[in-house]
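Handout, section B. The chain below has 77 residues.
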Amino acid sequence: MIRTIASQIASIPQVAVVYSVTGELDLVAIVQVPDLESVPTVVTDGIGSIIGVITTETHIAFRTYRPDDLGAGFSLG
């Protein structure tokens, strides 16, 4: 089921990448939108409407320090 949900999330155009993670969450999706007004459309209307998604938690990144290393924090190597 996680793979199916991850694939559906990844198919949303504004989703840059989806990670399967350990801990309290099952998946983390990096979403790239042009403005804050686009967040509810992607998160609530898009991700939140996928069957099997129970809840979402949104964090807004307001500054990027190393854009070339965007995925490094979620990669083992």
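Note. The helical segments are 2-10, 39-46. Compare this with the example in section A.
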